[in-house]
Structure formats: C-alpha cells, structure tokens
Amino acid sequence: MRTSRQETEDAPRPDGVGAHPRADDSTINPSNDADGISVQKTELTAAIQLVASTSYLVCTNNLTGYAQVLEEFRNDAAGSTFTVYTYGSDLNSWAACSSSTSAWDFNYHGHDGHGAIRFLTDAAGTMTDEWDYDAFGS
Q1: In this structure, is residue 135 part of a structural domain?
Q2: H helices of 59-107, where?
Q3: pLDDT cut 70: percent of the chain above it
Q4: DSSP3 helix / strand / coil % (the chain, rounded to 5)
Q5: Backbone torsions φ then ψ of 55, nearest 5 degrees
Q6: Which of 44, 57, 82, 85 matches a 20 to 30 Å C-alpha distance to 64?
C-alpha cells in the first residue's frame, strides 16, 4: 500500500502540465492526449536518467462518464509489468503479469453497500488486503 507522501508526490498537478519535482530531486513527467487525459508517465533521476516509463490505454466511452485505465504497461530496471483492469459499475478486478515471472497475478475488489472498496482477494479467494473507513471516508 502506498504512503500518503508517495500519493502526494505522484499525484498529477491540477493543470496536468509539466514535470512534478520530488523530494529527492527526481521528476515525474506526465503526458496527456488532446483531451487532457494522462496517457504516459516517465520518471527521471536528478541526473535526467530514465528510471521508469508507464503507458496507459484509457477508455472514455463508459457508463461512468469518467476516463478509465483499461491497460497499463510499466518498464523499469526490474523489467516490465503489464496490468489489465476490469470494470463493471466500478473497478472489479485487475491482473498483472511481470516479465521476470511471466505469471499472471489476479486480484478482485470487494465492495460494501456504499460502493467503497473494503477488501482485496487473490485468485484463490484469500483476502490479501482490507480497508476500514471512518465517517469522513478516511
């Protein structure tokens, strides 16, 4: 699970333009399509060397009215990872395959009555992660 600092550092700027500096002087450079939807992200060191590159296949034609990532391809020093997302009325599952293992890792989201994700299970149905929320959603 990501820490709040990582979420803040990785979060796109409201205008979606330009590099996002990080505390260690590395940068995240998002690329948007003509509609302003993020389609690629590159991570660079302070010496402007490529750390990782992530590309997104995004669908804007769906019932929610919001752009949703269908596929994600990440390439870094450890190899590449391909992730596929499955949606119903919300994100239902995702599966990832790493070039180092060549095996698919399937994960399924469990929702509560309000639609919030409460737990994550693996392909065998074993709960791997669980989230609790207070009245304010945190």
Answers
A1: no
A2: none
A3: 86
A4: 5, 50, 45
A5: -115, 145
A6: 82
Contacts of 66 by beta carbon, 8 Å cutoff, 6+ apart: none
Assign residue 37 the CATH number of its domain: 2.40.128
95 inside domain: yes
Domain that holds residue 70: 4-130
The answer to whether the CB of 81 falls within 8 A of the CB of 97 is: yes
Name 99's Cβ contacts closer than 8 Å, sequence gap at least 6: 79, 80, 81
Question: In which band, very low, low, confident or very high, does the pLDDT at 17 lie, cut at 50, 70 and 90?
Answer: low
Angle at 90 between CA 18 and CA 101, to 5 degrees: 70
Q: How far apart are CA 26 and CA 48, in angstroms?
A: 8
Q: How many domains does the chain have?
A: 1
